[in-house]
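Throughout our pipeline, every protein is held as a single compact record rather than as scattered files. Such a record has a labelled line for the sequence and another for the backbone structure tokens. This encoding replaces a full spatial description with a residue-level series of whole-number codes. For reference, a complete record is included directly beneath this paragraph.
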Amino acid sequence: MPFEKIPGTDVDYGLMSFDAAGRERTDDPAGLMSRRLIEKTADEPITDVFFFNHGWHGDITAAQDQYDRWIGAFITQGADLERARAIFPMFQPLLVGLHWPSEPWGDEDIPSGNAFGVSADTNPSSLLNGFATRLGDTPEIRRCLETILDEARGGAAAKQLSTSARNAYLDLNGILGIGSAGVGAAPDADRDSFDPDEIVKSGTSGPTNFGAFGFGGILAPLRVLSYWTMKKRARTIGEGGMHIFLKKLMTATVGRKTRIHLMGHSFGTIVVSGMLGGPNSDGTLPRPVESLVLVQGAVSLWSYCQDIPFPAAGGGYFKRLLTDRKVSGPIVTTKSEYDHAVGILYPLASKVRGAPDFVAGLPKFGGIGTFGIQGLKNAAEDSAMLTADRPYNFKGGKVYNLDGSQFISKMEGLSGAHNDIAGPEVAHSIWESAFATR
């Protein structure tokens, strides 16, 4: 992928792209972006590397638009930029946008003027190739999809599955390798058991606005499986190619004190946590990164704690990020009462049967974009997000949950304010996280 220019500025950022298996894309004529970024960091006096990572509903075109806005808001934050130059001697940042194929109906070609996409109309026959491509185009997956879509032709809005459609869904769930291991499991398995009948009966719309399509009835479980497949992909890519790249970058800058800062949004919080955690959250890094900001995270509020307060739950999947001190500076989360994607739709995607379970007023299944990181022995500090001219005085080694409801509030469809993160206040919190590492 190329270096991209922020519109209206002379600032550029590296756009680094990975495929669905977590391998870096190799189709850029200029060569691997990872190699170019490492060479740039080694050859130039780079003091700080800032990584930005999008969530679901991000093809290459959408990722470019998001990074233009997010990185643009960040790097044009004049007072923060001046403070960085005062705090960090010879401050010279390198900005990187990390892309992973997370758009159910997206354009994954490098833009060349001939963009393509799969139509998301409600005619089941037109969806087979699209779903097969996104879920994994194997004969077994196609067989399941054909059975489901053939039945949908006869009544997609029906409230009851036939035996053949039910079995096709259960087979597809197994083929995709999506677990149901409870609240302490990996992000793609922290759910109750998969029950396609219950999903059809309830008509749950849990995953709708993490993706881009709104099928109900018989096709509702297919939408749910697409949602969980994207969560699995986020973890696979973070723990795979992005973790490897992070280790290489750290090795290449050993002795230079180059600071590394990570930001993730939505499912991108799974990706950046996987970058730090490595395979099965059990990997190691040459050294900690300096700061981590999880913006409207679509990952469990219990993922980072050592002992989840539900029976036999164990520890959170990403607990070693804290116990192994993989972040030397602050870990900052944002939450908003207006983020309906995380506040309403996320828990529905995890549990569709029965009433929600709570401990001390906190749910068994909920996202940090609503509740922040919870369950820590040394409790996280909860506070309001500040205006862009006020200091936070973050401390290294601490977790901060910022309530951004005042600023993350612009409603957009069923997802609410989930994507309203390009304001100066969010950008300021990322800068302040970096300042705490001086």
